[in-house]
Amino acid sequence: MNRELEKIKYNFIDQVKHMNNVLGAWNFGSETHNLSDDYSDVDIVLLIDGKQFNQFTFLLERCLENINTKIILCWPERFNNEAIINNGYLLLSGSNIFQFDVFLLNIEKLDDSMCRLHYTGLKETDIIFDKTGIVNKLMKLHLTGNFWSDDISYLEKTYWYHANMTGKYLKRKDYFKLNHVLHTMYETHISMLLVGFDKITWGGSANKLYFIPIEKQTHLKKYYCPENLEGIEQNLISCLRWFQTDTKEVYNLKGLEYSAYLGDIVINNWIKEIK
């Protein structure tokens, strides 16, 4: 983590630690998985007294501004509710802008699914302070996350259905529809790969993809639509064939019978339509 941001973080912790309505705090995000670097932001969870939960955002922001930073943007997550508030802040410190994410958990609603997500995998080394022992109790629940799960038969159908659309959009030079369909294919390919190769039980797809084989990561890097559509045909052919290969491998890993019929017929028709 950037040294200046680290100083801001610990000045912030020093303030909230002395607030009666903050009962505990722990680190979240890349720092808890030894993946922090000079570009990492702050992810910190605060356990808040339920009676003061709804008013705490005001106190939180006052703390941030008391440590010689200026809040230039607050981005609240859409899932914010009476159980959890996740606000992402952009802080101006001197001439630098830092990202500072704070998760507020209502101690009276810790069984909420989003709250549970934020103490899943909690370790002793993640805990910053624990005034009442509740954070330690959450840690001792030993909650674990899950490997990626999806219906691979549905993923396969989704992919080839949308792949078949790309030919007409490419011939029309319809950038926006082609880009939209490519995005669906990209997300579907991601899910197929994670079903077969997910190695971690935390984080979203962007975190999980970091740990799949490098070769499989490469299979996702041609799903883009340049402004002039240059090179898109060859990129798409590569993507279609990689998806077919990866799908076969995932089926085999799951002990399921694979048929190349659907992929073959869509690919062959696509080549005929384009050429």
Describe this structure in words.
Helices cover 45% and strands 16% of the residues. It is of the alpha+beta class and 275 residues long. The protein has 2 domains: 3-139, Beta Polymerase, domain 2, CATH 3.30.460.10; 152-274, Up-down Bundle (Four Helix Bundle (Hemerythrin (Met), subunit A)). A 6-stranded mixed beta sheet has the order 3-4-5-2-1-6. A hairpin with a 7-residue loop joins strand 3 and strand 4 (84-93). Helix 5 packs parallel to helix 10.
Q: What is the string of helix and strand elements? A: HEEHEEEHEHHHHHHH
CATH class of the largest domain: Alpha Beta
Strand order of the largest sheet: 3-4-5-2-1-6
CATH superfamily of the largest domain: Beta Polymerase, domain 2
Distance between the termini: 51 Å
Query: What is the residue-mean pLDDT, rounded to a whole number?
Result: 95
| CATH topology tier name of the largest domain | Beta Polymerase, domain 2
Short description:
This protein is 45% helix and 16% strand. With 275 residues, the chain is α+β, with helices and mostly antiparallel strands.
How are the elements arranged and paired?
Layout: H1 3-16, E1 22-27, E2 42-48, H2 56-65, E3 70-76, E4 84-93, E5 96-106, H3 113-117, E6 127-130, H4 134-139, H5 152-172, H6 175-197, H7 205-209, H8 214-218, H9 232-253, H10 261-274
Parallel strand pairs: 2-5
Antiparallel strand pairs: 1-2, 1-6, 3-4, 4-5
Helix pairs in contact: 5-6, 5-9, 5-10, 6-9, 9-10
